[in-house]
Amino acid sequence: MHKRPPTMVRVPNVTRADIAQAVRNPLAFIAERWTPTQRTVQQAALISLVMTVVIVVTGGAVRLTGSGLGCPTWPKCTDDSLTATHEMGFHGVIEFGNRMLTYVLCAAVGWAIIAARSQKPMRRSLTLLGWAQFWLVMGNAVLGGIVVLVGLNPWTVAAHFLLSSALIAVAITMWQRTREGDAEPRPLVGKAVVQLVWSLVAASAVLIAVGTVVTGSGPHAGDSSDVPRMGFDWESVSKLHAVLAWIVVTLTFALWFVLKAVDAPRGPLARTRDLFLILLAQGAIGYVQYFTDLPELLVGLHMFGSCLVWIAVVRVLLSLRERPLTTADVPAQADDSRLSAV
Asked: pTM of the full predicted structure?
């Protein structure tokens, strides 16, 4: 029995015109030669979302370890070095490591943009969401530099976190849109329910904003030196934060009750249940950290929980409508022979 001789795959010639096109518009050049599967686009969007949460949490670790000025200047780590030096010790490593994660996040967002742009048919809405993430990352990187240059001013630190929350909202929206079609959205609930959910979104946004004030007034200044704090009584702001948290929990429970009463589809009910459970866990962590004098580990978990709460809130909002995935929305599988040739 004779073995079939291996076949030779012809590698296409790369002309000067191809090189010029790749330099002029690299995204279009890649899109002409690669078609990702639907699953690939979804995974790219999910990776971008996960990395966004990771950099928020590691940014919290920078603050909680007192490493906020581990690199005392920006964009370089010191006046004489782009990277952290041995003399800067643990704090320099932590702060510089968090800065390096920005490049990882940029790569994840870039991968999501490339995958969305290469999908066929191209979905402009996905590409725009990817670019929105990119510019939010760039803006937050610049704001992070300003935070360092102004010596961890608590108002700039709060703005840094809030801009990260906006980035999370765009990232979760893009991930959700990769699992939907491009047809006109069809509402799954009535206007009264939509209004209730928007009230929940607004209350959650205020809750997160007040949370940054709690942090800006509390003991975790982000550096071991004397860093200015917001001029609020920490305990009073913490109690306001707790009241807002109970308002969000109440709105969530009311939403679940209304959805049950109107026999809403499974999607909104499931997303509301998820939000309610996350809120309960987040509330438990919040009370424990308050009565145990804010241990760093619990504060870090609470920050991570804040990201999960915001993600769950946005998912509730997005679950109120559907965009069926039609055949036209599903990208064709790439030609294996063509992939081998590239």
From this structure: 0.86
CB neighbours of 340 closer than 8 A, spacing ≥ 6?
9
C-beta contacts of 131-134 below 8 A and 24+ residues apart: 132/170, 133/48, 133/52, 133/109, 133/167, 133/170, 133/171, 133/174, 134/106, 134/109, 134/110
Query: Which of the four pLDDT bands, split at 50, 70 and 90, describes residue 4?
Result: low
The band of 189, judged by pLDDT with boundaries at 50, 70 and 90, is very high
Q: Which amino acid is at 203?
A: A
Q: Which two tokens stand for residue 123?
A: 């979905």
| Pair 22, 29: CB distance under 8 Å | yes
DSSP string, 312-328: HHHHHHHTTEE----GG
SS3 string, 251-276, reads HHHHHHHHHHHCCCCHHHHHHHHHHH
Query: What's the whole-number average pLDDT of the chain?
Result: 86
